[in-house]
Amino acid sequence: MIRLKSYLSGAWVDGQGEDEILVDASTEETVATTCTDGLDRDAALQHAREHGGPALRAMTFAERGAMLKAISKAIHDNREALIEASVQGGTTRGDAKFDIDGASGTLAYYAGLGKRLGDRTFLVEGEGEQLTRSARFFGYHVKTPREGVAVHINAFNFPAWGLAEKAAVAWLAGVPVFSKPATPTALLAFRIAETIVDTGVLPVGAFQFLCGAHGDVLDHLGPQDMLAFTGSGRTGAILRRLAPISDRHVRVNVEADSLNAVVIGEDVEVGSEVWQMAVRDIAREVTQKTGQKCTATRRVFVPRGALEALTEALSEEIGRVKIGHPMHDGVRMGPVASAAQQRSVKEGIARFVEAGATLAYQNDAAPIGVEPGKGFFVRPTLLVAEPGNVAVVHQEEIFGPVTTLLPYDSTADAVRFVAMGEGGLIASIYTDDKKALKELVLGLAPWSGRLLCGTKKVADQAIAPGMVLPSCVHGGPGRAGGGEELGGERGLSFYLQRTAVQGDRALLMRVLGLKA
Ligand code: NAP
Q1: Rounded to an integer, what distance in angstroms lies between the CA atom of residue 161 and that of residue 64?
Q2: Are strands 150-153 and 137-145 parallel, antiparallel or unpaired?
Q3: Are 212 and 3 in contact (CB under 8 A)?
Q4: 242 in ligand 1 pocket by Cβ < 6 Å?
Q5: Whose C-alpha lies nearest to ligand 1, atom 35?
Q6: Atom of ligand 1 nearest to the CA of 480
Q7: Quick one: which atom of ligand 1 is closest to the CA of 180?
Q8: Closest CA to 156 of 35, 25, 41, 61
Q9: What is the pLDDT of residues 377-418, one digit of tens each?
């Protein structure tokens, strides 16, 4: 049995009260316990503001980047132990690598950005602006690290990447981090936190880790603090409305649910390269991490005439995926992370069917390598529905290996139906028809954080739609939370204050260290 601890105010500490239990998602055996009752969150936040913030702000981007590089390397060096820890949450080796390499890769990317930003402690955005008729009076936009703490609350599905992608950006910006993982899969997050602390490269107070219930942490935030939340839309809405958050003007970023869409163009021939690319991507997005990805494809818009062929092709692809214990040879899909998650997927499918969707395919092979009846397994499922008649497909995210195929009759209809999801993280478009591509890109962009265009020329080299890259923004409008993370230097903005500084051009250039 592993006891998970929290890292607060520079020490590993344990709570005293009722333990929270972490079970193995495949065997349902208890593997770890944790408790955060009685831990002094307020003191830990203050410790971060007093020590971590000033120390990070004194460092240059290059120095902060070097720190990230060391942490990235430590996570990479510890990869095998981290993969082992991820089994608790039902994660296969391949899925664990996706999470853990995503963590070290994002840290490495931001380490590189730190090196490029170099010997500075703050940023000046763009060129200055002449403000009057005189060329002497100028304005510059200066971006300085905020003087508070970045509180990061993460979802259960990416315990490694979720922690690291947020922390990398905050640390590079010069802001200390208070990170809280989701409890059901906190074992891997705890191992990541241990790895980070053990590097010894972070200044005192730069990292706090609360391994379990949030308690009163949000009651102690103030106007220089930031809350970056990833999780369900329901929790996101609760957090936004909390009085301590709204009354004390805490800066908030929310990454929430998303009914990510695929649109297969009317020109795409069944069996063509672009068709195969779409089938491969959809099958991967349905089954990778057992469908528990914020970027997984939930709605597939397919020309009516190609619906049958797509159902057949996807059933075949998904039927090939071996389901079972994550460490069993050849298994490509494990269970979902918890009993609650299993219940919610099954209930979601039943609700969709009751609302008018039909069950087109379910992989009903018994999970291999596990005791019969044990584990939080769910069946990969394809549903079919009329997008204009079954509203629930545009309203509810089934967070598991489930997607709905939705026939459409014109590109304009496809655009309209995607928008009914009220904002998503990613929409993928598969077409070689330039006119349709333009209509889809411009029609879907206002509703999407990211668009992937699958065409013949990139069919064998494009990345999967569910892959979040540190160089491109992650987040989406509306239902997806309205937030934005990553995106290279853009991601730093959440942790920096942009200030317009107006005055004598030559003087300001000297003060801000700008070259003529
Ligand atoms: P969740 O139940 O909303 O929990 C998310 C996090 O919030 C957990 O750490 C949870 O802690 C914490 N939490 C819950 N209530 C809280 C409160 N009142 N105050 C402070 N913290 C609170 O979501 P989940 O089940 O972990 O994750 C699944 C959802 O996340 C899905 O809907 C998925 O779409 C979304 N997601 C979105 C993204 C994105 O980037 N847009 C990425 C990944 C996941 P405890 O675990 O301790 O309760």
Answers
A1: 19
A2: unpaired
A3: no
A4: no
A5: 231
A6: 41
A7: 9
A8: 25
A9: 999 999 999 999 999 999 999 999 999 999 999 999 999 999
